[in-house]
Amino acid sequence: MNLQPIKGNHKPRGPVVLVIMDGVGIGRGDAGDLVSKASTPHLDWLREHVPHTRLKAHGAAVGMPSYEDMGNSEVGHNAIGCGRVFRQGAGLVQDAVDTGALFEGPVWKRLIDQCLRHESALHFIGLLSDGNVHSHVDHLEAMLETAKAQGVRTARVHPLLDGRDVAPTSALEYVDRLEAHLARMNADGGVDYAIASGGGRLNITMDRYEADWSMVERGWDIHVRGRGPTFGSAREAIESHRAADPGVIDQDLPPFVIVRDGHPVGPVRDGDSVIFFNFRGDRAMEMTRALEEDGFDLFDRTPRPQIAFAGMMEYDGDLHIPASYLVVPPAIDRTMGEYLSRSGLRQFALSETQKYGHVTYFFNGNRSGKFDDDLEEYVEIPSDRLPFEQRPWMKAGEITDAAIEAMRRGGIDFIRMNYPNGDMVGHTGNLLAVEVSVEAVDLAVGRLMETARETGAILVITADHGNADDMAQRSKTGEIIVDPATGKPAPKTAHSLNPVPVYIFDPDGRAGARLAAVEDPGISSLAATCLNLMGFQAPEGYSPSLVDGPEVAKLS
């Protein structure tokens, strides 16, 4: 599986550096577009002087069911890293639900059988929205209906509130919908299906990359132990938390436990079955470990109930987490990273904690570990443990320092790196902070450009999806919705459906890069592009390269 060189000497003097500006897409240039509003002299210069184009980063271009579905960092880095488009989590799960394959599989049958034999409860933990990034409420409702049809008498739902992949204060829309669905199921008196506990996704349960295990412990307390602030309903909990903190958005809402007659309605008990119904892995991994790992010691789980557990999908294919899952994930092979390692080329992967797994695990096709320990170097810069809007520059400076050191060191053929700012700060809905986050990334890109001139590196500057480029809620006709309380655009925290840029900065001109005629390109073309710039042919079946040779004027 060795790469084949392109005829002629096109190898650059320095490494090819793939710079992923997470969440920095191409917006409309209006008040909701914080990328265009920000001061970005380096990105502006690139637009004027280097080969560049727009790439699709959502919908079918990254394996999602339709172009109404936003992209996300997981599927985006999959597509970038493997150079092709695989049908992804949301589509796979929807197919399994629609065909009934999910309910015919041995894992589902085992969970249901556990509940029937022990007359125990079936629990569902997961993100309650239709954002289709981590989960979808349709999947939850379908599982509840099938569980009832198959004789499960007690079910408990532990919803995690979104406000990130959907409107920032839309939680009651989904909670009311779920409550109405449960009421219809309970109407004949044959079952008892109810919401048991919940809270904001960035307050409990959905930590990732081991950034803050206390979030998971809070989730354990309310989901498993039934310990936390108590309320008579989820609506009452949300309204009470909002009254106590009027500015809070859904993802940050504190936890709640639902009680009847003074007792929690749904702690997880011995003999119960539990499903984590998120299909995306990064924010499901830690609670999954807490629920099923025997040697777990990151917080006290006493008493730990003996349960049957499954995730919606396999969250880590190498570590086999979880041990049981309902839907088989795509088998992603022949990634760019594997080709480079098998060909004896040196790689360097870099980000801060929040996106470190994206340039490693997801980039490598949902694979933990390295292909070759001697040829690959992975660097994680620890992320700040505070709200991102309070420090919107995040670790852009430290990431850039490490990248510059690697570029100057020599001996590295390919560097991939991620600046999380546009995405992580974009999700906060704080418009001023988002503007600063984009400016921090632009400053970092400028430093990389200077080092590329010095070292002969080629920069491929792009994004995995949009976010900071569309920060305003819009009407059905696309007009910005203004918050009457502030007179400013009502903030949107979800990813955008906008294209993303790609700029090819080749100061030596050695690679002879010029834009190829690729119809409607997507971010899956970035792998072939980087390989071509390194002087190698793209593997068979890869999405077409964005560059073509042999001549291009030297850039200054």
Total domain units? 2
Q: Output the CATH homologous superfamily of the largest domain.
A: Alkaline Phosphatase, subunit A
Structural class: alpha/beta
Relative strand content: 15-25%
The main pleated sheet reads as: 10 strands, mixed
Uncertain runs are 550-556
Question: What count of helical segments does DSSP give?
Answer: 17
CATH topology name of the largest domain, in short, is Alkaline Phosphatase, subunit A
CATH class of the largest domain: Alpha Beta
The helix fraction, in percent, is: 25-40%
| Cα end-to-end separation | 37 Å
Mean of residue pLDDT values: 94
CATH architecture of the largest domain: 3-Layer(aba) Sandwich
Inertia-based shape = globular
